[in-house]
Write a structure and sequence with these properties.
419 residues; alpha/beta; UDP-n-acetylglucosamine1-carboxyvinyl-transferase, Chain; 4-stranded mixed β-sheet; 26% strand; binds uridine-diphosphate-N-acetylglucosamine
Length: 419
């Protein structure tokens, strides 16, 4: 077991490179199942979620090798169509293998992912869409058994622009017979990249980045190479940490066009931001102003940045309101922030933050990935020493987090708990 020790009070200053997007890799890697052969993913971050996805693909018979930032996946030797329950339980994105396995091999078995730290997370949209594409699905003992001779193109109206359902259905539809329309599709950059990768493999998809995707099914795909886009949530986290500490940071290998909602809010609360085609510089000289934020599907304010924004608003003298419309129960960071002295009230899915009061370091425990990022930011602004436990969450989604923070001048160390 490890923990992070943070001595707060230093402004973040300097330059760091943003890693490849975790959520893009978690969609791109399963897409390789659609074509036999050797696929190359570049700019892949070293994260435990990426390792879990590699383990999952290997359990199906693929061979995976991560060297530096290059992930080679050879899908010529697939022999299993059953995703092990333990891996799906560990990581919800494992459910992404269902669509491609079904489309290419005609059958798949994947257990239901179940809930997570921030409430129930159903997969009904994935399953209904696959059924509309002609799949026969049976759910027994919390496991989905899916079969289809060949999927058939159709029109799917998603009730909600689910990222996972859009990705799964897109991967299923590219090998279906005929044309599929996915309406109310997710527009997240990671889904756009998935679609572009599928096109590089020989698929025909129109409308990427819009709410309507038109997919003309093809009979086979071929391996391809893709460079993973920068992680917009990692970028947002560092920008917020810099703003919270009245710092000045430059992020390289970052995409400001993927961060529009965040940059707008950061400017609204007082940050100055300068962008070039692949760098982003944030400078903050004052305390932030209070704000009202409501999460929404892309291009709205991401739920994955809600907890970090809450930590930033602890610095803003006055009252801020942060509402999560995507996960109504994603507030496990709040009791931990309160242990540091934060004044926050939770009303349904809205956190009301009474900011501008000092925080005092203590021991806090992270419950999920983005909650841990919020605790880190709070530790950077708290007086004294904060210990963050539960680091396995942060290691799922932030590559070399303490090295990057140290590079920006933070006093952060990873230590073994039994030291
Ligand atoms: C993805 C991201 C996750 C992010 C989320 C929302 C990956 C690997 N993960 O997760 O980091 O927080 O998008 O931006 O990319 N829903 C249903 N039925 C379904 C599917 C979803 O009701 O079949 C609901 C969920 O419970 C949730 C909302 O839709 O309330 C958003 O879920 P979804 O967009 O599917 O998120 P994920 O793909 O799981």
């Amino acid at each position: 077991m490890e923990k992070l020790l943070i001595r707060g009070g230093r402004s973040l200053r300097g330059r760091i490179a943003i890693s490849g997007a975790k959520n893009a890799v978690l969609a791109l890697a399963p897409a390789t199942l659609l074509a036999p052969g050797s696929h190359r993913l570049l700019n892949v971050p070293h994260l435990t979620d990426v390792l879990t996805m590699m383990e999952l693909l290997e359990s199906l018979g693929c061979s995976c090798r991560l060297t530096g930032k290059e992930l080679l996946i050879d899908t010529s030797t697939i022999h299993s169509f059953h995703a092990p329950d333990e891996l799906v339980g560990r990581m919800r994105a494992s459910f992404y293998v269902l669509g491609p396995l079904l489309a290419r091999y005609g059958h798949a078995e994947v257990s239901l992912p179940g809930g997570c730290a921030f409430g129930p997370r159903p997969v009904d949209l994935h399953l209904e869409g696959l059924q509309q594409l002609g799949a026969q699905l049976t759910v027994r003992n919390r496991r989905v058994y899916a079969r289809a001779e060949r999927l058939r193109g159709t029109t799917i109206d998603l009730r909600f622009p689910s990222v996972g359902a859009t990705g799964n259905l897109l991967m299923a539809a590219v090998l279906a017979e005929g044309e599929t329309l996915i309406r109310n599709a997710a527009r997240e950059p990671e889904i756009v990249q998935l679609g572009e990768y599928l096109c590089a493999m020989g698929a025909s998809i129109e409308g990427l980045g819009s709410p309507v995707l038109r997919i003309r099914g093809v009979s086979h795909l071929h391996p391809a190479t893709v460079e993973v886009i920068p992680d917009r949530i990692e970028a947002a986290t560092f920008l917020i940490a810099a703003a919270a500490t009245q710092g000045e940071v430059t992020l390289t290998q970052a995409r400001s066009d993927h961060l529009h909602a965040i940059l707008t809010k950061l400017q609204e609360v007082g940050c100055s931001i300068v962008t070039t085609h692949d760098t982003l510089t944030l400078r903050m000289e004052t305390l932030p102003a209070p704000s009202t934020v409501t999460t929404a599907p892309y291009p709205g304010f991401p739920t994955d940045v809600q907890a970090q924004w809450t930590a930033l608003m602890l610095r803003a003298p006055g009252v801020s309101r942060i509402t999560d419309t995507i996960y109504l129960d994603r507030f496990k960071h709040i009791p931990e922030l309160q242990r540091l002295g934060a004044r926050i009230e939770l009303h349904g899915n809205t956190a009301i933050v009474f900011g501008g009061h000092p925080l005092t370091g203590t021991t806090v425990v992270s419950s999920d990935l983005r909650a841990s990022a919020a605790l880190l930011i709070a530790g950077l602004i708290a007086e004294g020493e904060t210990e963050v436990l539960g680091l396995h969450h942060i290691d799922r989604g932030y590559e070399a987090i303490e090295q990057k923070l140290q590079q920006l001048g933070a006093d952060v160390q990873r230590v073994r708990v039994d030291d």
